[in-house]
Amino acid sequence: MGGTSDRDLARTLVKRHGQTYAAESGIRLRNTPQPLYQALVLAHLLSARIRASVAVASARALFDAGMRSPRRMADATWQQRVDALGEGGYRRYDERTSTQLGDAAELLLEEYNGDLRRMRDAADGDLGALRGALRKVPGLGPAGSDIFVREVQGVWPEFSPHLDAKAVQGAERLGLPTDSGKLARLVQEGDIAAFASALVRASLDKAVVNDTRQAADG
């Protein structure tokens, strides 16, 4: 497939499936403490072996129950967190995840005063340093760290483009380049976060691949 066709396919993918998971969860992502924390919670939930739709629904349930900040998450009881996760369908890992969310909120309050911008400042543009700090958050791990960076790269542009292994897998399914640098050049700079999420959706759902190809060909 030639370069022009790759670009058309990428832009069609963004247009049809480019909603970020943060947006789907109702997070209005900005470089302010509360939405950044919510993106971290979402990344934690998405990193488990569970359907993305369940993770999104469970994040919404936590936020609807008032757990939108590290302080509110830490102040909630373990059972309140379990109940919210269960409401979203996150039942397989609900008890362990409830504990991890509480521990993570406490760590963020102690280390960063609940403000992930302090973690960003400490990383000073070094992706490895940021990943290292994120992996110290209970329950996040390597996958969750990558998901968080993927979601927030639009408001933390020094870490963009960030197309993680799952996004590259989606590119492969679409027949797009699997080199992250070549992939990033297929779309506008401001569309990278949406493109990354759309590629992940393609990796998870063959229907996304088929729909995008048909629309691009049409």
Weakly predicted, low-confidence segments:
none
Strand content: under 5%
The main pleated sheet reads as: none
Mean pLDDT across residues:
95
- Helix-strand topology string: HHHHHHHHHHHHHH
**Shape estimate:** globular
Question: Notable features of this structure?
Answer:
218 residues; mainly alpha
Question: How is this structure best described in words?
Answer:
The longest helix has 19 residues, at about 95-110. This protein is mainly α and about 220 residues long. It has helices spanning about 5-15, 20-25, 35-45, 50-65, 70-75, 80-85, 95-110, 115-125, 125-135, 140-150, 165-175, 180-185, 190-205, 205-215. The chain contains 14 helices and no strands. Helix 8 (about 115-125) crosses helix 9 (about 125-135) and helix 13 (about 190-205) crosses helix 14.
List the helices and strands and how they pair.
Elements: H1 3-17, H2 21-24, H3 33-46, H4 52-64, H5 70-75, H6 78-87, H7 94-112, H8 116-123, H9 127-135, H10 141-152, H11 165-174, H12 180-184, H13 192-204, H14 206-217
Helix pairs in contact: 1-13, 1-14, 3-4, 3-10, 4-6, 6-7, 8-9, 11-13, 13-14
Question: In summary, what is this structure?
Answer:
The protein is mainly α.
